[in-house]
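Exam review. A common question shows you a sequence with its C-alpha cells and asks you to describe the fold in words. Practice with the pair below. Do the first one on your own.
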Amino acid sequence: MTEQHPHDAHGYRFCPRCGQQLEERLLKPGDPSRLVCLVCGFVFYLDPKIAVGTIIRTDDDHLVLVRRAIEPGYGKWVFPGGYVDRGEALTRAAIREAREECGLDVRLDGLVNVYSYPGRTAIIVVYAATALDGTLAVDDESLECAVVTPADIPWTNLAFHSTHDALRDYLAGLLHPLTR
C-alpha cells in the first residue's frame, strides 16, 4: 500500500508562462519549497489532487468492491472512486464515479471522512452510498466487481491506505450527514 502514484512526483522543469527554467526555492519559513521561474518569477504551486470514493451498500447489506485494472494498485481491491474534474461538485463526482466504475446508480447517505497522507498528492473524500439501480459491471479501469459481506473484505489485498482507513471507519459507524 506504499506504491508511488504518478501524481506524487512532479518532474516539472520549465515555466508554463515563459518556458524558462524553474528552481526550487523556500519563499516563506515553515512552507514547503516552491518551484519558481528564474526569469519571470512565476510561482508554480503544486496543488493536491482531489479524489472521491463511494462505499456502496446493497439492499442485502453487502458492499461493492472493484479490482483495479490500472496502476497504481493493479489487481488490488478498492471501492469505486476517482478524480474530481475541475469545477465538478464533489457529490456529483462521487455519483459519476460509482456509475462509471461499477454500473450502479447510487444515493449518497453521508460523508465517511476525508483522508490525506504526508508526502501524497491526493486528498480522498469518501462517501457512504446505497445502490438504487443499475447492473453491476466493470469498466476499462476494473478487472472485476464483487459484492462482499463486511467479514469477506480482502483486508490484505486493498489498494490504498485510504481504502483500508475508510472501510474501517465506515464499519465502525463513522458517518457525517451531508449538508447541501
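Now try the second one, then compare your answer with the model answer below.
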Amino acid sequence: MLTDASPERLAHLYRSMLRIRRVEERVAAIYHTDKIKSPVHLSIGQEPPSVGVCEALAPQDVVFGTYRGHALYLAKGGDLRGMVAELYGKVTGCGRGKAGSMHLGDRSVGMMGTSAVVATSIPHAVGYAWAERTRKRDTVVAVFFGDGAVEEGVFPESLNFAALKNAPVLFVCENNLYAIHTPIHVRTPKPNYCERAEAHGIPAERIPGNDVLATAGAAKRAVDSIRLGGGPRFLEVETYRWREHVGPGEDWHLGYRSRAEGDSWVERDEIVRIGAMLDPDRRASIDASVDDEIEDAFAFAEAREFPRDEELYQHVFQP
C-alpha cells in the first residue's frame, strides 16, 4: 500500500469515492422515471468504509455485503456498466437483470453478493472463510453489515464460530447510527460493538468520523494479521447516510433524525476533504473522467435489451 499522503494514493481514494457518489446521484436523479427497475438503498455519505477496506484487500480476497451495496460492489472492482444495466433490469447487467440493486455480485472480482435480509451475509462469509482455510487458500473474507445486524442472533453465533475455527474473516460494521429509522440509544443500552467482538477473543478497532485513511490503515493491519494466520478481526467504522433508508430522496421530515445532525456530517464530507489534498488540475481531470465513465455506463444500460422470457429458466438451481 502506498504511503498515506502520496498523491497517487489520494487520487485513487478520491476517484473511487467520487465514482460511487456520482453514479448514485445519477440514480437518484432518474429514479422517478421508472427506468430503475428495483428499490435502491443509496450509499451517498457512506463511501469511506467500502473504499477504505477494499484498498487493503488483494485480488483473491472476497467480500459479502448488504442491500446497501453499490459502494462495495464498485470499490471491489465490479463493472460499472454491469451495475447500471442491472439496476435497469437489462440482460447485460451483472445479474442478467435478475438481481437488481439489492443482490449485486461479480465473482470475477470477489464480490460474492449482497443480501436483502439483515445479517444473513455474516454466516455465509464465515462459512466461506472456513472453507478457504480448510482448502489452505490465501483468501481473506470481508463481510460488511450495519449496526442493526449486530442485534441479530446470528451475529454472536458467527463471531463464536469464526474465533473457534480461526477463520480468515474480517467483520466490518458500518455503523451509520440507525437501524432503518431507529437510533442506537433506543435499541440498546450500550452500543459496545467492539467489546462484543473482543468478548469472543476477536481483536477489534473502532474508526470514528467516516475517515477513509484511518479506515484503510486499520483494514490493512487487520488483513495483514488475518493473512498471517492471526484469526478473525473486527472493525467498526462510524459513517452516515445522507439519503432516506430506501429510495432516492431525503427523509428529515420523518423526525427520527434532525437535519442539523445530517448537516454536521455533510460538512465533513470525506470526498471534499480528500479532494482538497490533490492538485486542482489533477482533481479536475479525475472529475471529468468519472463523469465520462458514468455517461457511458448509463448510455450502455439505456441501449441494451431486457431479458427474454426464457431467461426465467436459466441459472436456476436444480438438484
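Model answer, second protein: The first helix runs from residue 7 to 30. DSSP finds twelve helices and eight strands in the chain. Full marks require stating both points clearly.
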